[in-house]
């Protein structure tokens, strides 16, 4: 009976998860394939070796990919502002040494915490990518 209860509970939990929630689905940001391989030994990624280090690459993603060393793990987000349809101003801006990314569109201005990908000013959170690490290599994908 106990095993049946556990099985039922796990099934309910898995079925109740939905990709249509604000945490996962954003009508403004399309899904684009991404596969990045970052070697931390390369000089261009040296800031990522230290907690709080942030690097933005513009070669993949919708508006590029933001990668941050949180001190305990690496997190990756798309650099597109999630609050509105894509337009010229919808690339997030990060000031050196800051852990917040800000939407620079005049009618927005929402700030996002790069450690969490969330904002108090925004309906949507940042588009998150999967990050895995093997030695000094970081792999980002979706």
From TrEMBL:
- Every Rieske domain range: 42-140
Organism, scientific name = Myroides guanonis
Keyword match Oxidoreductase: yes
Any idea which GO molecular function terms this record carries? 2 iron, 2 sulfur cluster binding; dioxygenase activity; metal ion binding
Which residues, by range, are in coiled-coil regions? none
InterPro entries associated with the record: Rieske_2Fe-2S, Rieske_2Fe-2S_sf
Protein's UniProt name = Ferredoxin subunit of nitrite reductase or a ring-hydroxylating dioxygenase
At the top level, the lineage of the source is: Bacteria
* Keywords recorded for this protein, A-Z: 2Fe-2S, Dioxygenase, Iron, Iron-sulfur, Metal-binding, Oxidoreductase
């Amino acid at each position: 009976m106990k095993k049946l209860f556990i099985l039922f509970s796990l099934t309910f939990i898995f079925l109740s998860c939905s990709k249509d929630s604000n945490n996962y689905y954003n009508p403004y940001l399309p899904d684009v394939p991404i596969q990045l391989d970052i070697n931390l030994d390369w000089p261009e990624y040296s800031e990522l070796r230290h907690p709080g280090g942030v690097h933005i690459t513009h070669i993949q993603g919708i508006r590029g990919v933001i990668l941050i060393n949180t001190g305990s793990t690496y997190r990756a987000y798309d650099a597109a502002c999630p609050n509105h349809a894509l337009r010229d101003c919808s690339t997030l801006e990060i000031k050196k040494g800051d852990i917040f990314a800000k939407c620079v569109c005049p009618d927005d201005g929402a700030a996002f915490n790069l450690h969490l990908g969330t904002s108090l000013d925004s309906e949507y959170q940042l588009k998150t990518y999967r990050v895995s690490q093997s030695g000094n290599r970081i792999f980002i994908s979706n």
